[in-house]
Amino acid sequence: MDGTAFEFFSIASGFLGGLFVDPFIAFVDRPDKLIQIVSQGLSAGIMYSLVALGFVVIFKASGVFNFAQGIMVVFAGLTVVSLIEIGVPAIFAILLAIVVMGAMAVAIERVVLRPLVNQPGIILFMATIGLAFFLEGFGQTIFGADPKPVPIDALGIPDDKFRVLGDFFRKPVRIYQLDLTALIAGGLMVAAIILFLNRTKIGRALRAVADDNQAALSVGIPLPFIWVVVWTLSGLVAIFAGVMWGAQSQAGFSLAVIALKALPVLILGGFTSVPGAILGGIIIGVTEKLAEFYWRGVLGDGVEQWIGYVIALIILLFRPQGLFGEKIIERV
């Protein structure tokens, strides 16, 4: 074996060892760590799912990919934080934020969506990009550009200290209380959204609009009202996501990038699937945390930032509609 072949073999064996052997050794040495990492991934995945749900409900009802969803999360979170800062009790701050997001939904339907009915999808998409820039500038005018700490004590959110769940494999399993809270509360909110969509009259009307706008109009379902409902629902999701994401760092306009983190979730689960958004978020969240812990040495420190997009690219190659998306068949 010449020197070049030996060097290639050494590099390849080291790479494969870093991908498979080193993670196996780490798991054998600290099996309790796997449970902790998976719990953190589930918490992040539920948060991704909530952001993705905001995209899905709007896209299903109006065919609009809402590029402004990320800044809506920031706007909603900063609304709650700013109201608490001026002395408004937390529960009233959340209720007022719901009113604000509802008013925003009405304004978007009247000013943006209604004049653009029956326009090509790219026109509506560009309109949401303009809406994103407007909300960012308007938000910085109202709240300021500096990030704000989320008052977790006032909101009753546990801090980020470890909590011991129990002994597994003779080692204590510790996870952050904040991750556990996000996982439980996010799961309850996802369940509530699913029940709303499937068990209420408005939810059934929303699904009817998603299936066929013209048929829904023909049976008397008012499209403007449905659009206001779905944008308000997206705003409610944004409030929860903005507060919980802000609690993990700070509520600021840099959080708008979480909309980009939701894109792999949408591609994986499908742009029109609520279950796909949930399962896709969990898969992406857990994969990111596992890759960051087990593969950081061989793939680099930033693996958590890009591994989700690699998964999305693979899905696009083999199943462009996503795992649960509807396959479009065009007859010619």
Q: What is the topology?
A:
Elements: H1 3-29, H2 31-62, H3 69-85, H4 90-113, H5 121-143, H6 152-155, E1 162-168, E2 171-176, H7 177-199, H8 201-211, H9 213-218, H10 223-248, H11 258-269, H12 274-294, H13 296-299, H14 303-318
Antiparallel strand pairs: 1-2
Describe the structure.
With 332 residues, this protein is mainly α. It has a domain of 229 residues. It is built from 14 helices and two strands. A two-stranded antiparallel ribbon has the order 1-2. Helix 2 packs antiparallel against helix 10. The protein is globular, with a radius of gyration of 22 Å. The protein starts with a helix and ends in a 14-residue tail after the last helix.
Computed structural class: mainly alpha
Shape: globular
> H/E series, N to C?
HHHHHHEEHHHHHHHH
Query: Spans with pLDDT under 50 lasting ≥5 residues?
Result: none
Distance between the termini: 58 Å
Cα Rg: 22 Å
Overall helicity:
over 70%
Order of adjacent strands in the largest pleated sheet: 1-2
Strand content: under 5%
| Overall average pLDDT | 79
Reported for the largest beta sheet, the result is:
2 strands, antiparallel
Q: Helix count? A: 14
Number of strands: 2
